Amino acid sequence: MYEDKFVQIHLGSFFQEATHQQTIEEYAKQGWRLVQVLPIAYNGHGKPTDYEIIFERLIE
Questions:
Q1: Residues 19-39 pLDDT 10s
Q2: Which of 26, 30, 48 is closest to 38 using CA atoms?
Q3: Taking phi first (over 0 means left), then psi (-120 to 50 degrees means alpha), and beta for anything else, what does residue 37 get?
């Protein structure tokens, strides 16, 4: 059986650096496996700005 974790992140903007890679690496070190990344918010031009990263790991 698996447990899931849902993490919402902001992709970044002109003045902010995106942190998605660090987030994925941090959870991977804790034993979580990346399942999917879904856009959940968009700017006025239709570009995704916020994402939900879905992780899973085996329940022991």
A1: 788 899 999 999 999 999 999
A2: 48
A3: beta
